[in-house]
Write a structure and sequence with these properties.
about 260 residues, Arc Repressor Mutant, subunit A, Rossmann fold, 11 helices
């Protein structure tokens, strides 16, 4: 098995279980314990996991706090969405990415492309991209810092976003419905998302099925401002029809 593929599987297993022993990983992947230990050492070096004697767990930076609570929720769907979203990105493009558990999975996939310029308000995404061997540039937006989600926000962050022009804005959301469109539960995150949308040629929304037909407190944008929706399974029929009428391209892993 390709080491990159194998290590990605190890990370996904740890995210689903929170912690696991070397022996169990070796049995699950049908590889030697020595190979598991080498993979864990490499993954720990780049901050994706944390080693302990005889096994590994989620790193503290993604295992605690509000973002840590979300990173393992519906992990399989988020990995599928990240894989599909990567097909929309080309080397040397500029991408605005907001904070979210799904965009963290997406950021990890960016290591497969070279010479990107990534602008984000997420300290975790900035860390992931900057450690990748892909020679991409990373810009972490300034502003007030939220330690739970490891994100910057506020007027300073919004002002700095306006210094960039991007090929893509890749965003997570709180909810999507027919009447309002794209919504978020946090006003600060909604403000950052709106600013990123203003500066991007293309707007890609990453959303699992749980977000469809729900309502969140703060409007981000209408459906007709969205270029692409990437999801693990198609939205309900009424929402799907509205998206198509609004000119949104729907990329669903499960047809």
């Amino acid at each position: 098995m390709n080491p990159t593929v194998r290590q990605a599987q190890i990370v996904n297993i740890i995210r689903e279980r929170n912690r696991i022993a070397v022996d169990e990983l070796a049995k699950l992947l049908q590889i030697s314990k020595e190979t598991v230990r080498r993979d864990l050492s490499e993954l720990a070096r780049i901050g994706k996991i944390q080693k302990f004697h005889g096994g590994a767990s989620l790193p503290m930076m993604t295992g605690e706090g509000l973002l840590g609570d979300r990173i393992s929720e519906n992990a399989t769907a988020k990995v599928l969405i990240a894989d599909e979203a990567m097909k929309l990105i080309a080397p040397s493009e500029t991408i605005l990415i907001d904070t979210g558990s799904t965009t963290i999975y997406f950021a990890e996939k960016l290591s497969e492309l070279s010479n990107l310029t990534v602008v984000t308000n997420s300290a975790e995404i900035a860390r992931i991209v900057s450690l990748a061997p892909s020679q991409s540039k990373t810009f972490l937006l300034g502003g007030e810092f939220n330690g739970n989600n490891r994100q910057t926000f506020g007027s300073m962050a919004v002002s700095q976003i306006r210094s960039f022009r991007a090929h893509h804005a890749v965003l997570t959301i709180g909810a999507l419905d027919l009447r309002t469109g794209i919504m978020d539960f946090c006003i600060e995150e909604a403000q950052v998302a709106r600013a990123m949308i203003e500066q991007a040629e293309s707007v890609t929304i990453l959303a699992d099925y749980s977000k469809f037909g729900k309502i969140a407190s703060f409007e981000v944008c209408s459906l007709d401002r969205v270029t692409n929706l990437v999801c693990e399974q198609p939205p309900p029929e009424k929402i799907k029809t509205a998206l198509i009428e609004a000119g949104v391209n729907i990329f669903s892993v499960k047809k």
